[in-house]
Structure formats: structure tokens, C-alpha cells
Amino acid sequence: MDLTSYAVLAVLLINSPERLESLEGAGELLRESGHSAPQQRVTRADVEALRDLRGDLVAIFESATAGDEHDVVERINALLVRHPVHPQITGHDGSPWHLHLTEGGRVADQFAVGAVMGLAALVTGLGVNRLGLCQAAPCRRAYLDTSSNRSRRYCSDRCASRANVAAYRARKRGVTVG
């Protein structure tokens, strides 16, 4: 089981604040993530819990972007205590037996367990510097750096291109862009 793939859940939640404004939006987010069964109902308590989790995850990515490894680890450890993992072997949709991190609890709890375990696996396996916030102002969307040379600084090609064009234009005017 590749737990680092679960870290994408954290990025998805951070980058989707508008979806946490309604039950429908949160339900769409969870179904899109593949982390919620279609028959599971999202409650207002789930939406509130996801908003709180999003704030905690943003703080982790901010600390990682600032290079504060100890704060990242402390924050992830606190979330691991708050969202304990309950692994279960399962088989569904014609898939062979495999592990799921949790099958019980609220919808938001299931999402949280996956996101937090994914970040923990990524940080311990690849390092804190693989978490980041887009450096293209004013974006600040989260990303996971999966490049071989740890060089990613933007959430998307669009932001990278926009930042490079802005830097080029600033150089042409003789202004330094940071």
C-alpha cells in the first residue's frame, strides 16, 4: 500500500476551500477524491470538521514552505493523535484484497485519516521539503513536489508560466522580483 498517494487528499482539501461552503460542495469534493462511498451522507458536522482539518493542513504546508521541519512534524503528530488509524483489509469493485485506513467513523474522519497518514508517509519517506505552497503571487495553493530533483515551486504549469513571464517583464524593466 502506497500511503504517500493519500497525501494528495491533503492538497485537494487545501485547494478547495469554496467546496466547504455547502453540504453539496463537500459531498462533491469527497466523492471526487474517491474517499467516500456514494451512499454516505455528508453532514454539517463533517463540513465543519473538514474546515478545521483544512486549517490544520494549511499550517503544515506553511511551516514546510518556511523550512520549519520540527513544526511540520509536531503538527502532523498532533493530527495523528486526533485521527487514529484503523486499518482494515477490504475488497470491492472487483479489486483484490487491499488495505484501507479506516472504514468506520464520520465521513470527515475517514478523509482526515487518509490525508494525515499520507502526509506522515511522505514526510518520513521523502522529506518535509516535498510539501509546498505555490510561490506565484497571489496563488498560495498547495502542492506535493514529486520531481526527481526537488525543484517544484508552483502548483501548476499555469502558475509557473505566469511567474516566469512576470519575472521576465520585471527584468526587462530593470526591477527585481522576489
Automatic annotation (TrEMBL):
Q: Which InterPro entries match?
A: ABATE, ABATE_dom_sf, Znf_CGNR
Question: This protein's superkingdom?
Answer: Bacteria
Xref: SUPFAM superfamilies: Jann2411-like
User: What are the residue boundaries of the Zinc finger CGNR domain, all occurrences included?
Assistant: 130-172
- Gene3D superfamilies linked to this entry: Jann2411-like domain
Q: What PANTHER family is this protein classified in?
A: BLL6575 PROTEIN
Q: Would you tell me the protein name for this molecule?
A: Putative RNA-binding Zn ribbon-like protein
Species: Thermocatellispora tengchongensis
